[in-house]
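Researcher: I'm preparing a figure for a lab meeting and need a structural model of a single chain. I don't have an experimental structure, so a prediction will have to do for now. The sequence is pasted below. Please return the structure as tokens so I can convert it later.
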Amino acid sequence: MSSQIVRLRTLHGELDGCRACPKMIGPVVHGPAVLSKVILVGQAPGPREGSFGRPFAWTAGKTLFRWFEESMGIGEEDFRARVYIAAVARCFPGKASGGGDRKPDFEEIARCRTFLEREVAIQKPELVLAVGSLAITEVLGKEVAGKKLDAIVGRVFRTRWHDVDVDVVPLPHPSGASPWHKMEPGKTLLGQALAQVKRHPAMRDVLKRKAS
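Model: Understood. Here is the structure written out token by token.
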């Protein structure tokens, strides 16, 4: 067993025991300890993910993994086994007063960021897939501050994230509550973004290893 896997499993054990955010609803949700040069960063688990014990396990996940299967030919289980899945927050934030899921607050994001920083240090990714506005902002920061998805999705950004130089492909959130990816220009921009993911050397390696 590699030292990276050992470090990831140790980190996951710490995550599982974390109870730092009183408003968050457990259990902690994370993917398996997969070594990959591609990291997918989501926002936070929904209300169903905790019972399944893995991220993107419900409706939004079905949409997300359909995008990858239709554009790259990689199914959900292969994707989960080859791409490391992380998130801005790892517990369900609860419901917002106006309906929908509450967004994690600044302190909650900061507490979970320490885990994300360590995951990046272990993996040293080459490609980051930032899914949804919160994840995009977490990864790209001021570079995308105040910009709409129309100006972000469909582009590849080069940035330094947690002391690692990475390419970032922003993706819209696959939630059914958002029609952005089903309407123009979102539909076309999503297609462009997925094509960029498929062409990236790190993702090409993922797809090759899946086929071997």
